[in-house]
Structure prediction request, 336 residues.
Amino acid sequence: MRRYGKHTDEDDIRSRPNRKGNRPRTHIRPKHEDAVEGMVLTVDRGRLTCLVDDRIVLAMKARELGRKAAVVGDRVAIVGDLTGKKDTLARIVRIEERTSVLRRTADDDDPYERVVVANADQLAIVTALADPEPRPRLIDRCLVAAFDAGLEPLLVMTKSDLASPDKLLELYGHLDIPYVVTSREELENGVAVGRVREQLDGRITAFVGHSGVGKTTLVNALVPQDRRRLTGHVNAVTGRGRHTTTSALALPLDGDEGWVIDTPGVRSFGLHHVDPSRVIHAFPDLEPGTEGCPRACSHDEPDCALDQWVADGHADPARLYSLRRLLSTRERTEGD
Prediction:
């Protein structure tokens, strides 16, 4: 049965009232040309603490961003109340293009990627030489993730007063990774802080490591108390006094010469998201030798051209061993 005749007019058609009383949705999104740029310092339960100029601003994500999430290190466009006063809330309307993204998965079978930090250019892998014992497989996995993300790795070894670093240095020496060795006494008197600081100035460095290795203790030593005013503000407005290791936190180095990002301690570092073909880019002495490899070569098979490349003297055999060890890390558990 037809409700309307053949020749209907728009006025003849009833429209349902909007029960919520709000405006109808539109696909046209505002440009927010007056938005101000800020940097995300930490994220907690839907609230993002951002640095805008020299002010700490609490913000939430705008609805038009959909499922796109901002993470620590992101450069974002913010509108609304930017005074940073108590009980004010701004709105993040745009996430700027990222220069790098460090990701991990819960394990190698988990397809869900978790973004650890954005826009970092260095990854400091912190490991204790004892108490707890070093976990080389976890270090390998962090290295693969760093190479995949285009970050330069830095190996920081703590608690050298309890054990010698020689064994780890022998294992990673052929990777040409910069490293710093620290002890508890050197952290207390500031000697180690100076050595680590030399590797951080002018860079955005994310610190990763499993619980108990002294990662947050090192970060606290690197950031003087007068600069850690940010920490108190962040904890007060987002975490109700939560400890910084429960969520990633970006802190500026003294003199505005760089940033350190303290991340929560990790138990595992899944690599489901990593394309093994990108890891070779971290080995410039080996990469030219892959031109003769068969298509989709894993670089660890009988007809891999890298064997001949090394045999001809173009690269150190230990470098090829290191590459293959890292490439095979997805097939090994972190406790192997």
About this structure: The chain has eight helices and 13 strands. The radius of gyration is 25 Å. Helices lie at 136-149, 166-172, 184-189, 191-198, 215-222, 229-239, 306-311, 317-327. Confidence is low (pLDDT under 50) at residues 236-244.
